């Protein structure tokens, strides 16, 4: 049985120039495509995975999930916000710059998922949709390990009161207040509440707030900026090596 691997990047150790400095892994933010490709190769190399096997998404803040068994053919990457696989050794990736990256794994069933949970995705239920797809491939929520990476925290994610009410109606745990006393949303807290309701007990959340951390990209802070990545994969079994 192969073990699960989870990884989240910061902004350092790449080749992109300002304002994408340095390790921008997002290909649709205006950065030099050659730099992005180099950064993806650098990140994969440090993780010990094949950069050509990493499955990326065309993220659109929805709840659609794709079940995959290999990288996309050609350059046509579908618009989804979660990918799931039962192929051991296949790395899945999610891009963020304030949204919550969600990595999920059931090593017993050999199933992993990566999901992009921003405020709209939280309300739409992208994480429950990803877990549902995992269960369809044999995963058991009680065996799933969940990791959420750096994202904007509830003390910093200011939103209009109407928006906070809308999000809280879908997931009450996401209700928050900024450190200066205005309405806010805590997406990571909402994600963990959804996972808990689904029976996913083995969970861990990054303490890093992207808006507060100069070591991480933040769209709310900088607007034109790079993207971080979260990666999840399972070890290949010996007879599949």
UniProtKB/TrEMBL annotation:
* UniProt KW keywords: Copper, Hydrolase, Metal-binding, Oxidoreductase, Transferase, Zinc
Tell me one GO molecular function of this protein: hydrolase activity
Q: Which cofactor does it need?
A: Zn(2+); Cu(2+)
Q: Which SUPFAM superfamilies match?
A: CNF1/YfiH-like putative cysteine hydrolases
Q: Which reaction does it catalyse?
A: S-methyl-5'-thioadenosine + phosphate = 5-(methylsulfanyl)-alpha-D-ribose 1-phosphate + adenine; adenosine + phosphate = alpha-D-ribose 1-phosphate + adenine; adenosine + H2O + H(+) = inosine + NH4(+); inosine + phosphate = alpha-D-ribose 1-phosphate + hypoxanthine
Q: Function, please?
A: Purine nucleoside enzyme that catalyzes the phosphorolysis of adenosine and inosine nucleosides, yielding D-ribose 1-phosphate and the respective free bases, adenine and hypoxanthine. Also catalyzes the phosphorolysis of S-methyl-5'-thioadenosine into adenine and S-methyl-5-thio-alpha-D-ribose 1-phosphate. Also has adenosine deaminase activity.
Q: What protein family does this chain belong to?
A: Belongs to the purine nucleoside phosphorylase YfiH/LACC1 family.
Q: How does it assemble?
A: Homodimer.
NCBIfam families registered for this protein in UniProt: peptidoglycan editing factor PgeF (TIGR00726)
Identify this protein by name. Answer: Purine nucleoside phosphorylase
């Amino acid at each position: 049985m192969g073990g699960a691997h989870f990884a989240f990047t910061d902004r350092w150790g790449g080749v992109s120039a300002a304002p994408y400095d340095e390790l921008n892994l997002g290909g649709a933010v205006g950065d030099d495509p050659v730099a992005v490709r180099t950064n993806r190769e650098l990140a994969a190399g440090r993780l010990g995975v094949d950069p050509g096997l990493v499955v990326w998404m065309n993220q659109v803040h929805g709840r659609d999930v794709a079940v995959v068994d290999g990288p996309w053919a050609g350059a046509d990457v579908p618009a989804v916000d979660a990918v799931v696989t039962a192929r051991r050794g296949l790395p899945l990736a999610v891009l963020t710059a304030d949204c919550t990256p969600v990595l999920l794994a059931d090593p017993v069933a050999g199933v992993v998922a990566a999901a992009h949970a921003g405020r709209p995705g939280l309300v739409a239920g992208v994480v429950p949709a990803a877990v549902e797809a995992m269960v369809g491939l044999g995963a058991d929520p009680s065996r799933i390990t969940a990791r959420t990476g750096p994202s904007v925290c509830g003390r910093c994610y200011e939103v209009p009161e109407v928006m906070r009410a809308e999000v809280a109606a879908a997931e009450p745990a996401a209700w928050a207040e900024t450190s200066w006393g205005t309405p806010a949303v805590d997406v990571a807290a909402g994600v963990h509440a959804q996972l808990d309701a689904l029976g996913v007990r083995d969970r861990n959340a990054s303490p890093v707030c992207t808006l507060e951390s100069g070591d991480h990209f933040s769209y709310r802070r900088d607007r034109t900026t790079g993207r971080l990545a979260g990666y999840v994969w399972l070890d290949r079994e010996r007879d599949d090596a």
